[in-house]
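Re: beginner question about structure tokens

> Can someone show what the tokenized structure looks like for a real chain? I only ever see the sequence side.

Sure, here's an example I had lying around. Input first:
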Amino acid sequence: MLARTADNLFWLSRYVERAESLARILDVALRLATLPSAYAGTSNEWESAIDTAACREAFYAAYPVANEKNVTAFIIAGETNPTSIRRCIEIARHNARAVRTAITTEVWEILNDAWNHLQKVKLNQMSGQDLTRFLAFVKEVSLRFDGTAYRTMLRTDHYWFQRLGMYIERADNTARLLDVKYHVVLPEPEPVGGGLDYFQWSSLLRSLSALNSYHLIYRESIRPWLVADFLILRPEQPRSLISTYKNLNDVLDLLAERYGRQGPSQRLARSTFAELGNVDTDALFQQGLHEFLVGFLAENNRLGMAISEQYLQ
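And the corresponding structure tokens:
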């Protein structure tokens, strides 16, 4: 396969996954904003949203204050935001068009229809219910893209590069959501595990469509250390860090077999997967969840660069 084709497929799925993540970030902020102040806390949930989306500098260059109107406008379709939801769908569609022969007609139609729908969205005319429906639409596009690719694409390197992009982006997004929730959203005077903490963690789980599955695993009230365990170390949870790295390992091994050699990306993925398998939740909170997640994000970025250097150039 041409490196250019592999690069298009890799970034195609990364941008679809990123659009979904941005929708989920806004969903978290909306849920916290609708809570009474006694439960939502004193911190600015909209400021935490731009931190999670990693666009603080670009946002404040365009807007003076982080509030619902400004943050939703910037994350959904900000003209100076290179990774807005609108821009992510546009880039994904552009990459899909460049590799039409490498994807199925069904996959292409999902992205093309999503882009056509976005042209009709009038952000300045959105009510609260319209915004909720729009975020649900973005998440549905990603789910349909993922499921359709799974059900229609041949299991060749075309499919595997598309999967690599999705898993790299998913690991990054899960880690960022966890980090900002723990490090930014929770006010400093509030004890971990308190009443305020409960409502914020449950909002996070609900936004990830993981609240019911959390209770199926732990069968008790929400505890921050159990949420961390669930989203980092539980292989049953498809968005957990260990689950994404298990999948990354499997796909990279398939590519190594296909091309006849191992490389830096296989070694990095295997090393990070082994480290995750040795993590203890109690020790994780003692050493600092924030510090762990910052380190993980750095390793995940290293893997993305290694994949690019090994296969996409």
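Each token stands for a local structural state, so reading them left to right follows the chain. DSSP finds 16 helices and no strands in the chain.
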